[in-house]
Recover the amino acids of this structure.
């Protein structure tokens, strides 16, 4: 059984019932039902009606005494992981380019999730989101299946933000910032690829130019939706293909894809706290960007 004990801190003079607080914490309705009928929400050690007002500094105990939606485990992997952040419930890992986020078959043991399975030893990882095999950067992973639906709701409500850095070829002019809102679907000629198509799924990307010269630009990218290959397809369709993209860039390739998931922003579950986690560009990628853009090595800072 997963148990979470929270000291409630009232925000902005709010006055919430237990039911309203569980809704605010994005706990699924079905789970709220289980909590109520099993009396598994305790306030200061006692069960109360769901219409009870929660007071500042009340200690809330949530006993997740019911099956989660998923309970998938992985074979242990073999590679070390780079942990950027870790607490009792989540782990954020900096994935290397060329590493799959998750295995396609239960018999595989060479993905990031396999490596995290080995790292956790007595625990198991549960995938919150994924990034392409060729993309490097931050991946948020839950240590319990009970947080996955909560993070899924954050993704849907756009309170979980993923920010990327990309070096692109400028095969067409680009504005200093903008929004790409073009639907994405399967490429009928290549099962590996996606394409902008009228009957595709809605896909929206925000971009901002950080540095540029006549041939290349370093972009900051925000995903507002999470379609497969979304950034790669959107940028290539607008004639700004990501450098070293073997699927969507017609230019010569020399090295890994220049797409890095550098920043995650999300709400800490069961709190009003915002968590911001960032990772530095890999040194080889950073050095090449500086050389290509002919920038001094004082690090182009996307947050300035």
């Amino acid at each position: 059984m997963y148990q979470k004990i929270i000291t409630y801190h009232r925000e902005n003079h709010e006055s919430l019932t237990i039911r309203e607080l569980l809704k605010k914490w994005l706990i699924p309705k079905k789970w709220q039902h289980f909590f109520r009928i099993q009396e598994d929400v305790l306030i200061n050690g006692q069960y109360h009606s769901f219409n009870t007002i929660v007071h500042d500094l009340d200690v809330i105990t949530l006993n997740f005494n019911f099956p989660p939606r998923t309970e998938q485990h992985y074979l242990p992997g073999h590679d070390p992981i780079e942990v950027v952040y870790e607490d009792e419930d989540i782990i954020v890992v900096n994935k290397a380019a060329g590493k799959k986020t998750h295995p396609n078959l239960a018999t595989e043991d060479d993905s990031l999730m396999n490596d995290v399975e080995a790292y956790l030893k007595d625990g198991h990882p549960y995938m919150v989101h994924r990034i392409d095999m060729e993309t490097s950067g931050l991946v948020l992973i839950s240590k319990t299946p009970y947080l996955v639906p909560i993070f899924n709701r954050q993704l849907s409500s756009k309170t979980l933000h993923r920010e990327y850095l990309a070096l692109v070829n400028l095969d067409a002019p680009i504005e200093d910032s903008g929004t790409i809102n073009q639907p994405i679907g399967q490429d009928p000629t290549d099962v590996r690829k996606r394409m902008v198509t009228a009957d595709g799924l809605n896909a929206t990307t925000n971009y901002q130019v950080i540095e540029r010269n006549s041939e290349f630009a370093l972009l900051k990218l925000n995903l507002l939706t999470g379609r497969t290959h979304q950034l790669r397809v959107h940028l290539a369709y607008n004639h700004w293909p990501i450098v070293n993209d073997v699927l969507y860039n017609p230019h010569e390739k020399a090295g890994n894809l220049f797409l890095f998931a550098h920043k995650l922003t999300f709400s800490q579950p069961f709190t009003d706290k915002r968590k911001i986690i960032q990772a530095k560009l890999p040194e080889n990628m950073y050095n090449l960007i500086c050389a290509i853009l002919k920038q001094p090595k004082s690090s182009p800072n996307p947050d300035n």
In short: Residues 283-293 form the longest helix (11 residues).
